[in-house]
Design brief:
The chain has helices at residues 20-25, 30-35, 53-62, 83-88, 93-114, 181-196, 206-214, 217-247, 252-259, and strands at 2-6, 74-80, 125-132, 145-154, 263-266, 269-276, 279-286, 289-293, 312-314. With 315 residues, it is of the alpha+beta class. It has a 5-stranded mixed beta sheet with strand order 8-7-6-5-9. A hairpin with a 2-residue loop joins β7 (279-286) and β8 (289-293). The two termini are 36 Å apart.
Length: 315
Amino acid sequence: MHIKIQGGGNGKYANSGSCSSLVSYLEHEDLDRIKKGQKVEPFFSHNDDAIKCNAIIEAIDNNKKKLCRDEAKFFMITVSPSQKEIAHLGKMPEEQSKKLKDYIRNGVMQQYAENFQKGLNAEDIMYFAKIHHERKTNKEEGNLHIHILVSRKSADGRLKLSPMTNHQNTKKGAVKGGFVRVDFYTGAEKAFDEKFLYQRQREEQFDFKKQYKKGTAKDWEQLNIEKYQYNKQQKEYNNHFIQNCKEQGFSDKAIDHLIQGNSIEKGNESFSIGLTDNSFQLVRFVSSIAQTLQYAGGSGQSSEDNRRRKRKWSI
């Protein structure tokens, strides 16, 4: 997962004036998709699946009370899942897009809001996002990616919110709170993993990649040893988890169904899988009470998102 925050300068991400040029730029893929007979991905917001460009420009450009002429009026967040992450979301582009919209709304933007340390949630942020299917990609990133246009002001116009600030969790002075970009990146990564039951290998994790990028040859040697040990241990945990599920009476087919994010009913009980600290947890629902069955693969309660399953399968 690669996440980048942009805004400023005199290029296409200039953000002290109107957002009209940037909104127009984000439409560049639409014409090609229409010519190919493919579905165009409309802009979407937190509560709307299709927003017109003029409505976006009007909303962002008019949400600037008490901002000076040369101050930033908006920012751009680009979220680029890896090819492996995209494949994990499903085989069909429609399924991938649907899940990514959910992730942006309830994962990325929730993490963004919370990171300001002002008691905000995703619905308090004015943002408009657009999924793109093509890009000049490198070997790590997939073609599918999302651009998120975010207003500098909160949705109600009361608060100035800048992810570019150097303030971090300040409690005194003119600025309270701040924004810790590293926490945002790691929080968004964790939100993806827990929402979609994605077990991230050590080399895919943000902190590992950051250390590797800045490390020396000696650091790389140690990191590679750490990667090997981590991934080996994860595989052992998974094997033990699957064995325990089988001892609970689940077939291989049922276990695969659970790992795909679905739930299974057995009598008056319902079972699903959660992800805690990158380890699977089998969660049992009895009379609407969730109980985490602890195995060697890890312990603790599953996230709220992992308790909401779209399909149930009776056995």
